[in-house]
# Entry
Amino acid sequence: RSSHRTARRKDRRLMQTRFILQWFTILSFFVIAFVLELAPWPVGFQMLKPAWLVLVLLYWVLAIPNKVSIGWSFLLGLTWDLILGSTLGVHALVLSTSMYIIAKNYLILRNLSLWFQSLLVVLFVFIIRLLIFLVEFSLHTAFFHWQAILGAFASGLLWPWVFLLMRKIRRKVKLH
# Structure
C-alpha cells in the first residue's frame, strides 16, 4: 500500500514538473519574440523586420487554442503597448480581436499546407499592422508606412521555419 502511495506521489511530481516545463516553454517563446521585436536592425533593413510576436502568438493559437488564445493575446498586446510606449490598449485590442478570428477557425487553418499558411500570414500580418494604424490614426495623427508590406512578406517567408521549430519543441515537451 505504501509503494502505491509512493508511485502516486512520483506521478504527481512528474505531472507538476511537466506542467511547469510546458508553461515555461510557452513563456520563453514570448520573451524571445519580444526580444526579437526590440532587437535593432540596420536602418536600410528596418522595413524587412518580421512581426515576431504575431508569428509566435499565431503558432500557439493554432497549436493549442484551448490554452493560448484571446486572453493571452490581450495581455501580450498590453505588454507590447507598455514596451513601445504607445497608447495603452491599441495592440491589445487588435491582437485579441484578430486572434479570436484565428481561434474560431483554427481547425481549417491548421490543416492548410505550410506554404498556403505562409500566404495567409503575409495577409494577416499586413491586416494587423493596418488595423493598428487605423486605431492609432483615429486616436491621434499617425502615419502608415507602406514598407510594412515588406515586413509582412518577411513574416510569411519565415512562417514555415518558425512553425516547424516551434512544433518540434512543443512535441518534445509534450504540450497538447
